[in-house]
Design goal:
alpha/beta, Rossmann fold, 4-stranded antiparallel beta sheet, 34% helix
Length: 256
């Protein structure tokens, strides 16, 4: 994380991700998650075996309540499984303590949420800088990182604006910059276009696609929109907590 992410670094990023492209960055084995409700056990995910290759762009789809967001949260280390294994970049995160998991999450995963989750009293710059406050970077290095990612998402001229002074699309781009600022190995996005109009959603998806193609970022995105899923390289379908067939995303988008 010592070098800010810039357009000039994209060739090196592609080279770094090219050689291990066949190595899964995410692997789940017999992954299950259930909740207790009184005397009942409610299964949410059942024996999920999933590999995500380094540099891939995966869309998770399925009906409401199918377990999409739960699976995303498990992979991102936000939640813990009931059983099974989750390996991310070679680390079995299901075995980490809460403290170690929090430290791992801060440096390895970038989060993009449907409703942006920006701090309303902080400027765009300060919101993007927040993840770096947990690192040993100097103030000057933090500024360099933040300036670089804000420029990458096209918001260099909005750095001092508060969230309520930005459009929905601009707020989501700030959130994407915040996800990118620690140079994580994995970006997870939960319905990133769900609160946006169609055109703004297309622009946000184009930005995510650019991060995947130019920086080699691995992206896992939950979406209910087949047109959003069409941007991904691969579609994973969940139904009642079980993985279904995996048609290609472009093909799935034709059945809107």
């Amino acid at each position: 994380m010592g070098t800010p992410i810039t357009a000039a670094s994209t060739s090196a990023a592609r080279a770094a991700t090219a050689s291990p492209a066949d190595t899964p960055i995410v692997r789940t084995v017999d992954l299950s998650k259930s909740y207790r409700r009184g005397d009942q056990t409610i299964p949410v995910l059942v024996d999920i075996d999933l590999d995500v290759r380094r540099g891939d762009f995966v869309a998770l789809m399925g009906p409401s309540g199918s377990g999409k967001s739960t699976l995303l949260n498990l992979i991102a280390g936000i939640d813990q499984p009931t059983s099974g294994r989750i390996e991310v970049d070679g680390v079995d995160i299901a075995r980490l303590s809460e403290r170690d998991l929090a430290a791992w999450r801060a440096t390895h995963v970038g989060f993009v949420f449907q409703f942006y989750n920006l701090m309303p009293v902080l400027t765009a710059f300060e919101n993007v800088e927040l993840p770096l406050m947990l690192t040993p970077l100097s103030r000057a290095r933090r500024r360099a990182h933040v300036d670089a990612v804000l420029a990458m998402v096209g918001l260099a001229d909005r750095a001092e604006h508060l969230p309520n002074e930005l459009s929905g699309g601009q707020q989501q781009r700030v959130a994407i910059a915040r996800a990118l600022v620690t140079d994580p190995s994995l970006i997870v996005a939960d319905e990133p276009t769900g609160d946006l109009d169609r055109q703004t959603g297309i622009e946000v998806l184009a930005l995510l696609s650019r991060l995947n193609e130019e920086l080699g970022k691995t992206i896992i995105m939950v979406t209910h929109d087949p047109k959003a899923a069409a941007v991904a390289h691969r579609l994973v379908h969940l139904d009642k907590g079980v993985l279904g067939d995996e048609p290609d995303a472009a093909g799935a988008a034709g059945h809107d």
